[in-house]
Design goal:
The chain is mostly beta strands. Helix content is about 5%, strand content about 25%.
């Protein structure tokens, strides 16, 4: 299961993206949706936090906001070389407001609709294999590996992408469109979370049977 969540805000970018979907929160030194403060042991909890940041805002304004460390700097200790995948997919991420006025993300023009009275994993366990497209389910049981090229368009928003239950190989990422280059194919970076840069791309691959 591949998921994404909104990141922080871009200063003055209200016309570009809805609140909470821009760059990193750290560009302003605070998170405007924080609901609790974290105190160190023996701290005076009667005083409000006064933490600020000296990080330049210019580093976190789209389209260069909220990127990961360069992939050639994150080399796994235990090498696993890249191999050609059984399944190769391209996913375009966009965003828009639905009929209720809520902002939703779309992956290849489909946004996930959950039914809390009918959990997907329960349906799969019961043998269900065919779902409405808005349940965003795919049967990949005939494949051993998958590569997904995800590209964000339309909104300058960062997306932390996460794969449940797998450490995915991160083959490439950056701003714009993937040119097919794989960074360090002899031992690509492996993570379970990687941020899709605003107006950028990220290419992930993982084994489906592990």
């Amino acid at each position: 299961m591949l998921t994404s969540v909104p990141a922080g805000e871009i200063p003055g970018a209200g016309a570009l993206a809805p609140p909470g979907t821009g760059g990193c929160n750290i560009h302003s030194g605070y998170n405007n949706v924080t609901t609790a403060a974290i105190y160190y042991e023996n701290a005076d909890t009667s005083k409000p936090p006064t933490t600020t940041t000296d990080i330049s805002t210019s580093r976190f304004v789209a389209p260069f906001a909220c990127q990961n460390d360069p992939l050639n700097q994150t080399v796994p200790f235990f090498p696993i070389p890249w191999t050609k995948p059984d399944l190769d997919l391209n996913v375009i991420i966009t965003g828009d407001y639905n009929e209720t006025g809520q902002f939703v993300w779309w992956m290849n023009n489909v946004t996930f609709l959950a039914d809390f009275n009918d959990p997907l994993l329960l349906e799969v366990k019961l043998g269900q294999k065919v779902f409405n497209k808005f349940r965003a389910m795919n049967d990949w049981s005939q494949f051993k590996s998958v590569r997904i090229n995800i590209t964000g368009v339309g909104l300058p928003a960062a997306h932390p992408m996460h794969v449940h239950g797998h450490n995915m190989q991160v083959l490439s990422s950056g701003i714009g469109i993937w040119d097919g280059t794989i960074v360090n194919p002899e031992n690509p970076s492996r993570r379970d979370v990687h941020t899709l840069a605003p107006l950028g791309y990220a290419v992930f691959q993982w084994e489906l049977d592990k």
